[in-house]
Amino acid sequence: xxxxxxxxxxxxxxxxxxxxxxxxxxxxxxxxxxxxxxxxxxxxxxxxxxxxxxxxxxxxxxxxxxxxxxxxxxxxxxxxxxxxxxxxxxxxxxxxxxxxxxxxxxxxxxxxxxxxxxxxxxxxxxxxxxxxxxxxxxxxxxxxxxxxxxxxxxxxxxxxxxxxxxxxxxxxxxxxxxxxxxxxxxxxxxxxxxxxxxxxxxxxxxxxxxxxxxxxxxxxxxxxxxxxxxxxxxxxxxxxxxxxxxxxxxxxxxxxxxxxxxxxxxxxxxxxxxxxxxxxxxxxxxxxxxxxxxxxxxxxxxxxxxxxxxxxxxxxxxxxxxxxxxxxxxxxxxxxxxxxxxxxxxxxxxxxxxxxxxxxxxxxxxxxxxxxxxxxxxxxxxxxxxxxxxxxxxxxxxxxxxxxxxxxxxxxxxxxxxxxxxxxxxxxxxxxxxxxxxxxxxxxxxxxxxxxxxxxxxxxxxxxxxxxxxxxxxxxxxxxxxxxxxxxxxxxxxxxxxxxxxxxxxxxxxxxxxxxxxxxxxxxxxxxxxxxxxxxxxxxxxxxxxxxxxxxxxxxxxxxxx
Length: 562
Hints:
Mean pLDDT: 83
Structural class: alpha+beta
Distance between the termini: 83 Å
Low-confidence stretches: 1-17, 99-105
Number of strands: 17
Shape: elongated
Largest sheet: 15 strands, mixed
């Protein structure tokens, strides 16, 4: 890490480092947001296409993947990443071939990635008075998913030779969309004192405003939704916050907790010095602290290793084959620690570092995409039900349309994006299962599916009820129409010789029969529901004669009064 004072830790942390440092520290923030399209983009399925056309000053450009270039330049690292996943996941991540169509479907991946390259450094002051820290930016990407109203911001930063306590404090503070509270001094709780985006020429492009308590309080008071820190608004531009006066056809709002999910890799100079308390703080991204005292009680942490740790390779061997790598995940965070002196751990092509940045990142991304998409569906279903007014025909019609659209989208999500497993390779399979377990994705999916099925059942019941009402009306009209049919049938019989009458007389007779028949039909349709009840009462054989007569009388009186 390029640091104004590289050897210094924030005040009060020097005694907690115990000489342990991260020779290399890498942090990846993953922030899912709910996209809300307005205006001309309201009904689009391709949010990435709309986003790419938002003005000439848009700093984001679509990222061409490794499969679109010269096949001779395809690297072994890309091949290793590709073959990690099962074929359904491969088609989701990479598509099925550029420009090809298989079984009538497009061969392109449903994922589009936008990247901005104008930010070189993230400058962070973790606390008031602490030295500023420069974290180098590896990349800043924005992931869009076809037909899903979700975008995911990905920020990857790295640094070298920093104290363990500083790395832990970066993990605790950096990924905050807004403050949860403020200290008496005015410092934002668990947020950096300042975060600034630095351009390649050293200029400050934007800075955070976590200390602006009035801004965040008034935003919640006015919109009943939290505001977003200024530097994150700048980063996502031309996306604009949903509850904002800014003009924009693509808007976003939060889906999850204000703390962004993150991945962290720490290559340590002395990993054997880490105590159990250090691993607990790393796994839960709790920030720095002494290694010996545990941050929680022994009873609470009794199953810590079984619940949060994946220790398939967590063992020091004399032959150096295993780098003492430990994977830890609480769902919100995926943390990897290992020996910085081990070449396999630091290998950018075949080793742990490569897997962390590529295969394991995609595993983490898919898990959080699943959760974000399910939360988005839940929001949409709740909004549709909240606007339901059965007495308002327009609202009811709109509810049917929204419900059908939600059903279609959920069906496509299930068949295109939903995976219980993404790989048969042991570490990839187990890490994906560990993340899903802590994120409670399967229970959330079952809950959303039940909500969708309940709404679908409601529509089916409504359609059945209307069909039954229509059939009842038609039955009543047909029954009473027999009276008119019989009464007017004499016109076609030979009882009266109407054929010998003049045309004017025959027209008069037709009118005399047609007018009351028409009136009777219209009245029958208007009173079909009550007449149906009247017929039901007449046909009720279980009612005694006197009771039947009284029931008929009540129905008749009610029909007259209505």
